[in-house]
Amino acid sequence: MLNLLRTNFYDFWIYPLYIITACTFTAGLNIVHSKYILEIPLTAQLFIVPTIAGVIFGYLAARIRQQGQRLADLNDWHIFAKYILFGCLVTSGLNVVHTEWVLDEPLSAELFVAPLIAGIFFGYLLARIKTLNNRLLKLATTDMLTQLCNRMQFDNLLTQEIDKVKRYGGTFSVIYFDIDNFKQINDQYGHLVGDKVLSSLANHIESTKRKSDILARYGGDEFIILAPSTNLESAEKQAKLLKHSVEDLQIDNLPKLSCSFGVTEFNEEHHNNNVLISVVDKALYAAKNRGRDTVVAT
């Protein structure tokens, strides 16, 4: 409860904090711009447009900082270029309004010096916040060893798929599998080799599965696939194809790998993630009991 209160307190104050900081910066630039470049006396009306600019950039910075999970995964260079250009366009546009309509002064090149500095500054800040949030998002949703979705991200995607099917109809299936005798690989060759096996298998399955399927590392040597718009029969065929493809995978001089697969299709009895995962886990357990290296659909 205390952590929740702290989070809500921070969320409440992040907007006024960023807006006040931005307004202070734009007001300071406006003083330099008006007093030393335009050489006109300061009046209250001179701070109208700079304050609007501060509120806009402060709000945008706070929103990006708070809702970074919605941001696109772009290259950092493109992010900085885009946001700095955006910042300069906004501050230059506001400068035109400020100079021509508020100050009633003719435009000249020197009048854009301070606004462009402000645009570069705020564009950089917005881009910096965005790239940091992108990195935090990746850390929160990606398994660092295999670069696949992690368990938390997969559970979120599975919940969304369940809600979509319940609302609009259709179906989907889940394929759950692990590496047979993986503990022996760790014990005999060491955990570094075990990690290489996991990452190699992940890359192999990622390149072999259908593009529409979502692959995640669910824990240890366990992997899981969400197959949208796929019934049980099609999912079972897909699992068998993956099983046979694993047999062709050769990792250094290690023995051939094999995997056991459990498959299930969503139905009305699967009320939530836990029930669905429990069903497909039992199917995987049945595959283990049948001697491994097999597919069990239920």
Mean pLDDT: 83
Total beta strands: 5
Number of helices: 9
Q: How many domains, as an integer?
A: 2
Contiguous runs where pLDDT drops below 50 for at least 5 residues: 1-10, 68-74
Helical proportion, percent range: 55-70%
CATH architecture of the largest domain: 2-Layer Sandwich
Strand content: 5-15%
Largest sheet: 5 strands, mixed
- The CATH superfamily of the largest domain bears the name Reverse transcriptase/Diguanylate cyclase domain
Structural class: alpha+beta
Order of helices and strands: HHHHHEHHEEHEHE
* CATH fold topology of the largest domain: Alpha-Beta Plaits
Overall radius of gyration: 28 Å
Strand order of the largest sheet: 2-3-1-4-5
Q: N- to C-terminal separation?
A: 41 Å
Indicate the CATH class of the largest domain. Alpha Beta
Shape summary: elongated
Question: How is this structure best described in words?
Answer:
The structure is a single chain. This protein is α+β, with helices and mostly antiparallel strands and 298 residues long. The protein contains 9 helices and 5 strands, in the order H-H-H-H-H-E-H-H-E-E-H-E-H-E. It has helices at 2-37, 48-66, 76-102, 113-141, 151-168, 182-189, 191-208, 232-247, 273-289; strands at residues 172-179, 214-219, 222-228, 259-265, 295-297. Strand 2 and strand 3 (222-228) form a beta hairpin. The longest helix has 36 residues, at 2-37. It is elongated and about 90 Å long. The relative contact order is 0.09.
